[in-house]
């Protein structure tokens, strides 16, 4: 190749690069912009755990998020549990992993299912979920919509006892009462109490009863057609493993020279993160790594929208003769703006008026130039 040929080829390549640069608009960087903004802002997730005492709810949550949310918890004796009512307790912790911040809120329900008479023991839990929807609806309808705190419950882990032959009446009533308000994920707790054969039979029985009683639990979304086969296979395994049989442990034991989280028994060691022993890894994968965003989207687009539509329908149907609306939710009174607020409003109005005048002058100048 001669020097002139090399020169012409360099010119052609530079021209091609310039042509590509001219054809490149730049909106392909939008995902990167959204990613940077999302990471900077951080994420939030609210998880509700429900089930009777002693099923390992707190231990499982600590195992999932590698934190201790119940350091100062007081355990009640049998006499104190008799008179105990269902309480709602919140634990919030900020977690950071590889620069990504997560504000995790765990809503616990001590006292649920522990009474002699458990009739409608889920009412306080249902009321709490509705209250979070109500608060979000108020904030969304208010003046300051920029910094809304989202405390809506995105997922409910419902713990089913390993002993028994299926769903109890309280299990059926609880899940049916909350199925339209929150994503219900049923779990078989303390799965180390059962043999693999017993776990398989119990899972089949629970799936049959869930279908029989028309209980709507969280449904995994279908995979997109362009997903790789490995992801499709993992998604299929997750769907086939429900309800997840889980074990929780905060203790670290040594197995074949390696330190793992597990439970030590006289007959051997149960490893929490061993998929041959339980479905803990599958639950963690679903809840955190693959479906956390979908849980939030279903909460926002389905459950909250149903609540919001019901509120708006109730408000519009109760219009009085003088066209005033009786709100189904108690609205906060609008406070009178203080002096600083009024001053700020006046400054903004003045700035807006100046901009309008400048725009009119520019339009007039452009019109005169055209003439």
Structure description:
By secondary structure, this protein is α/β, with parallel strands linked by helices. Helices cover 47% and strands 15% of the residues. Helix 9 (280-290) packs across helix 10 (292-317). The longest helix is centred in the last third of the chain and has 32 residues, at 339-370. The relative contact order is 0.09.
- Proportion of residues in extended strands: 5-15%
Structural class: alpha/beta
Number of strands: 9
The helix/strand order is: HHEHHEEHEHEHHEEEEHHH
Q: Quickly count the helices.
A: 11
Distance between the termini: 60 Å
Biggest sheet strand line-up: 2-3-1-4-5-6
Shape: elongated
Give unreliable regions as ranges: 5-12, 331-336
Q: Please tell me how large the radius of gyration is.
A: 29 Å
Major sheet details:
6 strands, mixed
- Helix proportion: 40-55%
Q: Give the integer mean of the pLDDT values.
A: 79
Question: What is the compact description of this entry?
Answer:
This protein has 371 residues and is α/β, with parallel strands linked by helices. It contains 11 helices and 9 strands.
Summarize the SSE layout with pairings.
Layout: H1 3-23, H2 30-41, E1 43-50, H3 57-65, H4 78-82, E2 89-97, E3 100-108, H5 123-141, E4 155-160, H6 169-178, E5 184-188, H7 196-212, H8 229-241, E6 244-245, E7 252-255, E8 258-265, E9 268-271, H9 280-290, H10 292-317, H11 339-370
Parallel strand pairs: 1-3, 1-4, 4-5, 5-6
Antiparallel strand pairs: 2-3, 7-8, 8-9
Helix pairs in contact: 9-10
